[in-house]
Amino acid sequence: MKYALIADLHGNLEALYAILAHAGAQGVGRYVFLGDIVGYGPDPEPVLELCRHMVSTGDALAVLGNHDAAACGRDSTSNMNEAARAVIEWTRSKLKPRHQQWLASLPLVLQRDRMTWVHASALRPEAWTYIDTSRQARLSLREAGSTWVFSGHVHDPMLYYTCPDQRVPGVRLVERRSILLNPRRSWLAIVGSAGQPRDGLPGARYAVFDRSRYLYTSYRLAYDFAATAAKIRAAGLPERLAHHIEGVLLPVPRAIRR
User: Fold this and answer.
1) What are 220's strand-pairing partners?
2) Which of 80, 10, 2, 22 is nearest to 219 (CA)?
């Protein structure tokens, strides 16, 4: 089966539509939402409703992200800066009780068939640790105990793998070029953000894992990001978020990342 791995949508409806169309053309059989379905973006309700429907029909799986947890009251916003907290409050005002209840019901980690799906690290997932070093990748892999671990939270894609000498190096992938995730190693893939890029380039990031052939492919898709940025501005959300959508490279303080 092919799995579409979608992380950090952040209420970006146009990006979600582009990913679903592209993944469908790739013959994807199951979608996995790796957390942060809402937060930052202008369309939390329709994005969440679509994801919720896909999970209810068995077409998708979903795990909880830190913005999801904050939006449903399962976690506090104490680690977020003022702008991020304001966006969470705005998001809460747009969600119906059934949406908040659904978010609150999502698990932190899912595991099956030698795969683990988690928003941040598998080691204390509720701590929302960023996997941005080989050490953090090693800890998550060790805790997961799976051959393949797929995560979000860090908005830039990355791939880590185990070596016989216990090293866990990280590599950046070439988009649209499949890489064999040999099951004789353990692998941790950071999928990249579908709805809030942070690398100065527009586009919706996601990945496809072909479980039967062990092939992993990272994609960046074109979509109508100008429409999303216009919605962000119309909603009165922080200008920085529109700039990220448009591919403007800005320094991102750690508090903003959360």
Assistant:
1) 205
2) 22
pTM (two decimals): 0.95
Provide the CATH topology of domain 2-257. Purple Acid Phosphatase; chain A, domain 2 (3.60.21)
Q: Where are the alpha helices (DSSP H) in 115-159?
A: 134-144
The 3-class secondary structure across 168-200, one letter per residue, is CCEECCCCCCCEECCCCCCEEEECCECCCCCCC
In terms of Cα–Cα distance, which of 12, 1, 2 is closest to 155? 12
Which amino acid is present at 249? L
Give the confidence band of 251 by pLDDT, cuts at 50, 70, 90: low
Name residue 110's beta-bridge partners: 117
Spatial neighbors of 253 by CB under 8 A, at least 6 apart, are 81
Indicate if the pLDDT at residue 257 is higher than 90.
no
Distance CA 246, CA 84 (A): 19
Distances, alpha carbon 178 to alpha carbons 23, 49, 64, 182, in Å: 15, 31, 28, 12
* Cα–Cα distance, 146 to 45 (Å, whole number): 33
Q: pLDDT category, 154, cuts 50, 70, 90?
A: very high
Beta partners for residue 117, in sequence order: 110, 150
How is residue 125 annotated by DSSP? G
Amino acid at 198: R
- Cα–chain center distance at 166: 27
Residue 101, number of CB atoms within 10 A of its CB: 11
Q: CA-CA distance, 182 to 149, in Å (whole number)?
A: 13
